[in-house]
Amino acid sequence: MDLSAINPVLFVAGFLVAATPLIFAAIGELVVEKSGTLNLGVEGMMITGAICGFATAVETGSPILGFAAAALGGALLSLLFAFLTQITLANQVASGLALTLFGLGLSALLGQSYVGIKPPRLNDINFGPLADIPVIGPILLTHDIILYLGIALVAATWAVLKFTRAGLILRAVGESHDAAHALGYKVVRIRTLAIMFGGACAGIGGAYISLIRVPQWTEGMTAGVGWIALALVVFASWKPWRLLLGAYLFGGITQLQLNLQGAGVAIPVEYLAMSPYLITIIVLVILSRDKSAAPACLGRTFHASS
Amino acid sequence: MIRLEKRPQPSRAFSLATPVLAVIATMFFGGLLFMALGKEPLLAIKTIFWEPLFGEFSFFYRPQLMIKGAPLVLIAIGLSLGFKAGIWNIGAEGQYIMGALFGAGVGLAFYPAEGHYIFPLMVLAGAFGGWVWAMIPALLKVKFGTNEILVSLMLVYVAEQFLASMSLGLLKNPEGFGFPGSRNLQQYESAFNADLIEGSGMHWGVVAAMIAVIFAYVLLSKHRLGFAIRVTGEAPRAAKFSGVNPTRLVLFCLGTSGLLAGLAGMFEVSGPAGQVTIDFNVGYGFTAIIVAFLGRLHPIGILLAGLLMALTYIGGDIAQSQLGLPAAAIQVFQGMLLFFLLALDMFTNYRLRFGRTEVA
Amino acid sequence: MTDTPLLDLSGLTKAYPGVIANDDVSLSIAPGEVHALLGENGAGKSTLVKMIYGLVKPDAGTMHMFGAPFTPSEPRAARASGVGMVFQHFSLFDALSVAENIALGMEDAPKMGALSQQIRDVSDTYGLPLAPDRVVGDLSAGERQRVEIIRCLLQQPKLLIMDEPTSVLTPQEVEILFKTLRKLSAEGTAILYISHKLEEIRALCDSATILRLGKVVGHCTPAETSARDMAEMMVGKLLQTPTRAGKSPGEVVLELANLSVSSPNAFGMPLRGISVEVRRGEVLGIGGVAGNGQDELLAALSGEMLSTPGMIRFEGQNIGLLGPTPRRAMGILSAPEERLGHAAAPDMSLTENAMLTAAAREGLESGGILNWGKARGFAEKIIETFDVRTPGPSNAARSLSGGNLQKFVIGREVLQRPDLLVVNQPTWGVDASAAASIRQSLLDLAQNGTALVVISQDLDELMEISDRFAALNEGRLSEPRPAQGLTVEEIGLMMGGAHGMEVAHV
Q: Is pLDDT of C501 > 70?
């Protein structure tokens, strides 16, 4: 075992990368849940985004187009969920599960001919001489645009929810769809838009795994990140900045266990690999006491009966 | 403009018709999918649904129906109890794995001793393994209010890693020339879950599935506990008012579904699969979710849905070898089925009204 | 007042499947007029105002505002035309602040800071004190109503619709509300005032339109019409007042000693030191504004909420730690306020709903095995005895009308011969004749020696059937007093006077 093989600078830079898929998927789901809808299909939308992004990037040679396609793919898949839960008023838990099962199958089907291919690389942003600043440079300034976009998205979501009328309306719909309806707000339309936003974000998160973090395509490669994202929203008490913090925590743990595997620690690989899931459970236990932050209408079906 | 209007009471006719309509819709759109993949749609559908039952090699496939259907039905029956009460065990796949590991572990611990006591002990151990794994989310939910969906699902990944560790470590066949995987239980008479009638596919797991169906039917229609499950799902406050103890219900529903999933895993590892390997689990725990919904959470419905789902597995395999239909296409096909079911289910509680726009 | 009416409705008709909610309804309102819309539950008042507010489109008929056609396609359009509405069930968001709630109801809300100032201004002008930054979930019912009113007033409406505004207020708060409304009316704002409380209408309104079964059955000037005449127009037949025989209460059945329980809900009300005794054959009426601990008190008595031993005694036994099932076996039965989802499971049949609470006492189960035949028989007996209008016991609870389901729910408990019966809002949303029969069945029960706790927000009802009266306020119960001879002022003070109105007295 050789712990000195873990370079702290590379480790931190690595966990920023590891956290990014989670940030995208979780901030999208946060917006969806703020609107009062629980979409358990994050995993399915992520994996769909992962293959849509991968295939598009390989075919066009442009990683950025890949990310755009991933967002589109995730949003399109989420429309299925929106249709089931908002139009046909199906149970949200069941519909979300259906989305995940379907997404896993669909991605496997789409990805058959892409196994074993290397995708085009998305270049890191060139910060010029700034990147040469010791420690800070290699950690913070050697990444691709999507990673920074993720952080910006968290900030933007926070600002929109807190300061804008659109954010207020979104929160209101999540708190009481009946009251929002009585005031004349289009509950179904607002929720559908939120669900599509969540789908697009999850898609980008998935593509970040297949295009940047791994980068290659294998079936089921999201390996539960979508579910961890769902847990992260609970962990964050539906607050964007806490979500960012949580994502880094999980990213750190993931990166650490990978580094430990690489360093040949005496713990068997399998037990290291299960640690992110176990820690998710522990965190859920610690934070589940306080449910007051949850949107009051979360998971409830809305039907305008008047 | 079309709008939805809530029916004064749920429609029985639609409740029964929905699964059938969903299967038809899935066949139609599945056919389109197969066409898009460059396959002859009618041939593909026939290969999947007809070939295993009445084709040339149906003598071989029909027993397979039992073998694949039994774990699906066994798991889905357990899940349906919880789903009915609004308790969501999504981690049956993990409980299935743990049941297999516990069951196989006990069996292998006796190797090479022979005795009639060994198989029953394995059954108990398998049930216990699944039950324990499901009691983790159950106890956390009861004690801390933790979301059982997320916890049970996280435990699937944990169980998969545990499975990998076991098949590479503790349970690895010492005479296996270094290959991962345990001894083959099919070659260990006392631990082998063999066909009760040679070549029929009727192993103990099938018997267990039948018992589970009957047990669930009686429980839900005749017993106070089943009534408590139904009321809790329909109206949790009314259930509490009537005296249902939600804590006990969570423990019962999650525990029972874990136990049944564990049994399914144990019967599988000691019979059709034969050994513990890294890729022992093939997603029965997740497919059983579809089975439970397709069967409308009703025991008899689940029995039929389980057989149908088993058919798509077997037919899918045939289509894969004969037509080159990718395995993932069947997965999409199964996912589609759940979509159509959920969408069409709307007609049970609502009807469409055509007419002037209502400000909604 | 000008000659062109502010709002003129003519021939409005709206049908829902199986029921004509509004049939050829016409009325007109002048600027500054306070116009009462009077009718029983189900008479079509709500549908009518929803059409004016753009929530529902009429099938036939026309609306004019100041002579111009008025066809609001959505509430936004109605608000833009100067129609404001205060809902009966508040359209408020518990987790949001007062200012945020108000901003949501406005078309072009100013910045939060400016809006807060406007809220303070309006609340000063009209004597409706309200802090803009408070979270709405923490407000009392009266304060919540003020949020709605201020939300409307900020839009400077020409017409203010108020749907049953006083049902959540103490008598003192009603007075304050009336002052505000009179002031608005003097400034030229017309008010459409929906109520079934006759005395209020006589005190406040200039004119009244009476609806019955969707049709206009008369117009009148309330000040010149007796309450009895209006009641007869509204109900269409003479009401039977429940009869009660004089009686002397028996021994103590229920004893609450300093009952304190915290509420399981985030915005619920804890019970604080409630002490009271209820005797055999006695009706204890408990009044109070909604949200002051009514649900919690019922839950603590039914066994849904457990309490420290010693706080609740039934026939001398400590029952604080017993759940609903053992309490039922002892003879403590209850009927909660919320019919659908609490007292009954909406999608389940009446037979199954009979099983819900009657399994033990009616012998519908033995050793865990349910006897559905017997349950069906019991459901039929309830339907028969309480005149529940339904095709049969296999129909789902949600298919029944509110009044019929309420009769079923109350009947289910009454027929199980309770020793103690606790009911919350026994006649809420029920038509007058069903209400009268429910009250009569409660009085008959008391006559036969059952101890009754009747929780209600309908003071008339409580005065009619209670032997003693007490009020819940902030989770505390006032000292019970004999119901006979209590004045409205005394009751109002027991209910806590005017909540949070200290500023207004200055």
A: no
pLDDT at C381: 95
DSSP3 helix / strand / coil % (chain A, rounded to 5): 75, 0, 25
Q: Is C393 an interface residue toward B (CB < 8 Å)?
A: no
- Across the A/B interface, how many CB contacts are shorter than 8 Å? 141
pTM: 0.86
How many Å apart are CA C201 and CA C203, to the nearest integer? 5
* Phi, psi of C61, deg, nearest 5: 100, 170
C18, C9, C16, C19: which is closest to C59 by C-alpha? C16
H/E element holding C454?
strand C451-455
Residue A254 sits in a domain of what CATH number?
A: 1.10.3470.10
Question: How would CATH label the architecture of C252-494?
Answer: 3-Layer(aba) Sandwich (3.40)
Q: Kindly list the averaged pLDDT for each block of 10 residues, start to end, along chain B of length 360.
A: 75 84 91 88 89 85 89 96 93 95 91 86 95 96 89 93 88 78 80 77 88 95 94 92 93 96 94 85 89 92 93 90 87 88 85 58
If 0-12 CB within 10 Å is exposed, 13-18 middle and 19+ buried, where does residue B291 land? Answer: buried
Domain B73-322, CATH among 1.10.10, 3.40.50, 1.10.3470, 2.20.25: 1.10.3470
Site from A161, A162, A175, A239 to mutate, C interface, most C CB atoms within 10 angstroms: A175
Please tell me the predicted confidence (pLDDT) of residue B358. Answer: 43
**Residue A270 · residue A148 · CB < 8 Å:** no
Q: Provide the 8-state DSSP code for C340.
A: B
Query: What distance in Å separates the CA atoms of residue B124 and residue B130, rounded to the nearest whole number?
Result: 10
Q: Write down the pLDDT at residue C506.
A: 30
Contacts of C347 in chain A (CB under 8 A): none
Q: In this structure, which amino acid lies at residue A99?
A: L
Between 3.40.250.10, 1.10.600.10, 1.10.1040.10, 3.40.50.300, what CATH number should domain C7-235 receive? 3.40.50.300
C78, closest residue in chain A (CA to CA): A184
Q: Tell me how close the Cα of A170 comes to any Cα of chain C, in angstroms.
A: 11
Domain ranges of chain B: 73-322
Task: Report the residue from C304, C340, C355 with minimal CB separation from B241.
Answer: C304
**What's the farthest any 2 CA atoms get from each other in chain A?**
68
Please state, as a whole number, how many other Cβ atoms lie within 10 Å of the Cβ of residue C134: 14
Low-confidence ranges of chain A (pLDDT < 50): 1, 306
Nearest to B80, CA basis, from B219, B264, B247, B206: B219
ipTM for the whole complex = 0.85
- Residue scoring higher pLDDT (A301 or C160): C160
Q: Which residues contact C246 (CB under 8 A, 6 or more apart)?
A: none
Q: How far is C396 from chain B (nearest CA, A)?
A: 6
Contacts of residue C79 in chain A, CB cutoff 8 Å?
A: 184
Closest CA relative to residue B138, chosen from B195, B95, B101, B180: B95
Q: Which pLDDT value is given to residue C296?
A: 93
> Does A104 fall in a domain?
yes
Which secondary-structure segment (H or E) carries C471?
strand C468-473
